[in-house]
Amino acid sequence: MRPLTIQEVVSATGGRYCGEERLLLSTISKVVADSRMVSPGTLFVPIIGERVDAHDFIPAAFQAGAACVFSQRTLDCDKPYILVDSTLMALQRLAAWYKGQFSPRVIGITGSVGKTTMKEMLFSALSQEFCVFKSQGNLNSQVGLPLTLFELGPEHQLAILEMGTSSFGEIDRLARLGQPDDCLFINIGNVHLEFLGSRQGVFQAKTEMLSHMRPGGHVFVNGDDDLLLGLKRSREDVITFGLEKHNDVRATQIRSLGLSGMAFTAVWDGGTCEITVPVPGDHMVYPALGALAVSLAYGMAPDAIRTGIAEYRPIWGRMNIQDLGEIMLINDAYNASPSSMRAALDVLGYHTGRKVAILGDMYELGEDTERYHREVGAYAREKGIDLILCVGGLTQGMAQTAKGRHYEGKAELWAQLPGLLQPGDAVLIKGSRGLEMEEIVQKLQNLYGWHETQTH
């Protein structure tokens, strides 16, 4: 982060400074919204959430060395702070101002599933030729995206910003902050239906990004998605990627390499190349095609793009395949939706030995929650999964259609799990973020003595 003065922060946010005037020239070297991450020179941004008001942690932040804090109310202290109407909006205004100090070309990414995978694969490809900034991890929210922007620097030629949403208006605010030059849409799925109502609602929420797109760029879309393909008919700046013949960049001769990955021949107007993706699953062809489409538009040579895709490595909780010795662990625990559950079960199906699926609740599916869980259970059974263990309050129907076992909670599951596994098993773990299925992942890693260097 480029150091800022408190005076610059005040000017960027329009807040009212409270404190000694001489401290306005004090330096801010870090911006955080978690008081546990505060160190000397930090600007602490206390966000008011549904359950926690982080204003309660302002004293702890100052004690840890915070140089300044935002606050929505007057503080009874002698420390410098900036009074604002909304700490969240002040954070976003400051991030927008900070981003404006640099001039990278911005690629905005969104979609229902696979946003982070797409971002990481595109980063791997573009980094072969450009200095690329990317939003960190899954920081794609109203708080996460502005926080990650403070890592942007003058050396970055490109910036890849992942934008997530669960309700209308959120992508609009993030895109206003990011001001993308190019937009990439991965898919429109049945997610967050509790708030967005339908796939059409999801499409409407995701495409809010387009209203803040700068002129002269491209819109890259998965042309196999019926709703996204509609953009091709209404805009002249759309480049499609996918498996169907109508796409501008498409995959042919798709081959599975088992749990080692996928391979395919990419074809576009005037070119072709062989692509290897080092992660299994047919669904991994799409982020590879998206990375190829964007990189070609940016003038990169196919060989460099191919190298970048081959060097892609998934981040934690997203199709990490770990050899634990007696079992093979497929850690896809970060989140879950109906489509991503099916994709993960497809990957598990590549294993030649006994297949075990540990599947958790899928949240925010609205009135059709029961149906979606039952459909996933039926799909698991159709795939020939040998042992299906369903955990959580929403998975009773899934367990019934899967002919599997149901556990109300993770503790109940873990009490039996070690005795159910056999040498040679491949074990898939997947569930919605709120269920924290990584606890099962970590317990299995500890049980089998796994270490970080053993990741496949």
Number of strands: 22
Tell me the overall shape.
globular
Please name the fourth-level CATH homologous superfamily of the largest domain: Mur-like, catalytic domain
Approximate strand percentage: 15-25%
Treating each run of at least 4 consecutive H or I residues as one helix, how many helices? 16
Give average pLDDT, whole number. 93
Q: How helix-rich are the residues, as a percent range?
A: 25-40%
Radius of gyration: 23 Å
What fold name stands as the CATH topology of the largest domain? UDP-N-acetylmuramoyl-L-alanine:D-glutamate ligase
Please, how many domains? Answer: 3
- Extract low-pLDDT stretches: none
Largest β sheet strand count, sense and barrel closure:
9 strands, mixed
CATH architecture verdict of the largest domain: 3-Layer(aba) Sandwich
In the CATH scheme, the class of the largest domain would be Alpha Beta
Helix vs. strand class: alpha/beta
End-to-end C-alpha gap:
33 Å
Strand order of the largest sheet: 9-10-8-11-12-13-14-15-16
What does this structure look like?
By secondary structure, the chain is of the alpha/beta class. The chain folds into three domains: 84 residues, MurE/MurF, N-terminal domain (Udp-n-acetylmuramoylalanyl-d-glutamate--2,6- Diaminopimelate Ligase, Chain: A, domain 1), CATH 3.40.1390.10; 209 residues, Mur-like, catalytic domain (UDP-N-acetylmuramoyl-L-alanine:D-glutamate ligase, 3-Layer(aba) Sandwich); 135 residues, Alpha-Beta Complex (Protein-Tyrosine Phosphatase, Chain A), CATH 3.90.190. It contains 16 helices and 22 strands. The strands form four sheets. The chain has a nine-stranded mixed β-sheet with strand order 9-10-8-11-12-13-14-15-16, sandwiched between helices. α10 runs antiparallel to α11, α12 packs parallel to α13 and α13 packs parallel to α14. The radius of gyration is 23 Å and the shape is globular.
